Amino acid sequence: MTMRYRAYAYTDEADRSLTLAEDVRRGLTASPKSLPPKYFYDAIGARLFEDITRLAEYYLTRTEAALLDKLAPGLMRELAPRDIVELGAGSAAKTRRLLDARNGLRGTVRYVPVDVDALTVQASAARLIADYRFLQVRALVGDFEQHLPHVPPPVGRRLVLFLGSTIGNLDPPARHRLLTQVRDLLRTGDDRFLVGLDLVKDVKVLEAAYNDASGVTAEFNRNILEVVNRGVDADFHPGAFRHLAFYNEGEARIEMHLVPDSTQEVNLRRLGLRIRVSPEETIWTESCYKFTRGSAETMLEDAGLRLDRWHVDPDRYFALAVAAPG
Ligand code: SAH
Ligand code: AVI
Question: What is the pLDDT of residues 20-63, one digit of tens each?
């Protein structure tokens, strides 16, 4: 790999394994039981997520991608970013839509993907520097809830990206903490934050997106138990858990849970812990919050950000919000 790529990992294997053990202990001894959704993304989980993005029911990815295609030329001309930081970059497929629109602009661009999934970041960085001669990649392998202070100072006008409605996977207090840090990443009045938000809509459409007919989302959900089994030497039988996803209207969120078929004892050997799971008490694995223009504006303002532009698709399914320092 050339010097146009550098990766910095802010946790080593031992650290990650300790954090996972603590998170699992906290989550599975709490009431209700829960697991942090960042643990979905091992190699298998990342592949299953890519499969989800191509499902007919999962309108989010293709709707956001079409919006990006429409907006990218104007946005890239206007912002002319020299420094792009992307939270939860994943395969960076949508980032390419912005980079493609940069044709004709001169000079280098530094790209800082931040993602917990080291393998995906490395593979996508290799492809990006091969395809975009003007790009330098300085990957940060870490947790965007913890490691944003390690993002290097900007090398020019900065654009922070948080696409895919991944922000919706954070509960309101965590989201506020993260957005406050995003605000700190914007150093001048010209810097911008581009965030993808899934919108409140017909419950049937929302619930179908998380209950696809081919069962990929169910597999993605159950895979978190494989990650836990490996991480803390546990004996969950993922096949004995049912996928449950429903819209909680009061909280404007899809909730994903795992429901055991019957009461089971699970041994988490590395934690010296035995737990009992039963169908009455689910394991809550993910929330996917949905937004309105009003809720987005308030959320941004609370973190010192000002909504500058609001773009939605014709069906009003998904929004791209551009925010400036407030
Ligand atoms: N931005 C891409 C990928 C979204 S999937 C898209 O829009 O399609 C969510 C991504 O966020 C995954 O790559 C996952 O590894 C990453 N991720 C989830 N929680 C994270 C966390 N706490 N810190 C850093 N990355 C995280
Ligand atoms: C990554 N994130 C935005 C996805 C979502 O829709 O909340 C994760 C996902 N969970 C189930 N399907 C997709």
Answer: 999 999 999 999 999 999 999 999 999 999 999 999 999 999 99
Q: Residue 179 class from Cβ within 10 Å (0-12 exposed, 13-18 middle, 19+ buried)? A: buried
Q: CB atoms < 10 A from the CB of 249, how many? A: 11
> Which atom of ligand 1 lies nearest, measured to the CA of 41?
15
Is 231:24 a contact under the CB 8 Å cutoff?
yes
Nearest one of 115, 122, 95 to 196, comparing CA atoms: 95
Q: Report the distance separating Cα 195 and Cα 162, nearest Å.
A: 5
Ligand nearest to the CA of 144: 1
Closest atom of ligand 1 to CA, residue 38 = 19
Q: What does the alpha-carbon distance between residue 106 and residue 120 come to, in Å, rounded to a whole number?
A: 28
Q: Which atom of ligand 1 is nearest to the CA of 95?
A: 1
Which of the listed residues 23, 116, 160 should we mutate to test ligand 1's pocket, taking the one with most ligand atoms within 8 A of CB? Answer: 116
Nearest Cα to 83, choosing from 196, 163, 186?
A: 186
Verify whether ligand 1 is closer than 6 Å to residue 168 (CB atom).
no
Q: With 0.85 as the threshold, say if the pTM is over it.
A: yes
Give 257 Cα–ligand 1 centroid separation in angstroms.
19
Burial of 299 (0-12, 13-18, 19+ CB in 10 A): buried
Ligand 1: nearest atom to the Cα of 88 = 11
The CA distances from residue 71 to 47, 78, 175, 200, 277, in Å, are 28, 11, 25, 22, 47
Distance from the alpha carbon of residue 17 to the mean position of ligand 2, in angstroms:
24
Place of tokens 């490691």: 147
- Which residue minimizes the CA distance to atom 14 of ligand 1? 88
Contact 198, 291 (CB under 8 A): yes
